[in-house]
């Protein structure tokens, strides 16, 4: 794989560990997902894989990071993501995202990530089960991090 689209879920889960207050089974699954997301981000950076995100990802990341931490950390995280990946503007994605939303019924945010992966012919990496299902429905290659083994991720990257 030489190019990918990262969903906000992967970015956030690579930064924040799951709450220890989760039931043990959920905590273990989310900790494994955190480790896989961290590996994905590290490997993308080390291997200089072309990585795309829609601008809306910056907004979504800032909002989620603020809910999980504070305003200053949210600002630093979203700025770092802004500086780290190739941002693709809405005018390039909009028509495809609109078609995807009409065909699949997925959320507006999800349609932007799926559209971007479709346009760039890139692998969509997400930990959002609904987004993954809609991507597959639209014939976009997608990986659902929580359901893929780390060894398979290593082979993909």
What does this structure look like?
- This protein starts with a strand and ends with a helix.
- It contains eight helices and five strands; from the N terminus they run βααβααβααβαβα.
- It has one domain: 5'-nuclease (Rossmann fold).
- The chain has a five-stranded parallel sheet with strand order 3-2-1-4-5, sandwiched between helices.
- The chain is globular, with a radius of gyration of 15 Å.
- It is α/β, with parallel strands linked by helices.
- The longest helix has 23 residues.
- α3 runs antiparallel to α4.
- α7 links the parallel β4 and β5.
- The relative contact order is 0.19.
Keywords:
157 residues; five-stranded parallel beta sheet; alpha/beta
Give the topology string: H per helix, E per strand. EHHEHHEHHEHEH
Overall mean confidence score, pLDDT: 96
- Strand content bin: 5-15%
Q: What is the CATH first-level class name?
A: Alpha Beta
Fraction in helix: 55-70%
| Outline type | globular
Number of helices: 8
Radius of gyration: 15 Å
Helix-and-strand structural type: alpha/beta
**Could you say how many structural domains there are in total?**
1
Question: What is the strand arrangement across the widest sheet?
Answer: 3-2-1-4-5
């Amino acid at each position: 794989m030489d190019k990918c689209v990262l969903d906000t879920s992967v970015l956030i889960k690579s930064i924040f560990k799951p709450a220890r207050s989760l039931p043990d089974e959920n905590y273990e699954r989310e900790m494994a997902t955190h480790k896989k997301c961290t590996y994905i981000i590290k490997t993308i950076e080390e291997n200089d894989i072309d990585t795309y995100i829609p601008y809306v990802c910056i907004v979504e990341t800032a909002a989620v990071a603020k809910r999980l931490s504070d305003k200053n950390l949210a600002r630093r995280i979203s700025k770092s993501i802004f500086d780290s990946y190739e941002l693709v503007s809405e005018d390039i994605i909009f028509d495809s995202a609109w078609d995807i939303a009409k065909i699949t019924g997925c959320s507006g945010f999800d349609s932007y990530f799926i559209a971007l992966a479709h346009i760039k012919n890139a692998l969509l990496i997400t930990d959002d089960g609904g987004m993954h299902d809609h991507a597959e429905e639209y014939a976009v290659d997608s990986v659902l991090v929580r359901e893929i083994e780390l060894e398979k991720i290593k082979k993909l990257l």
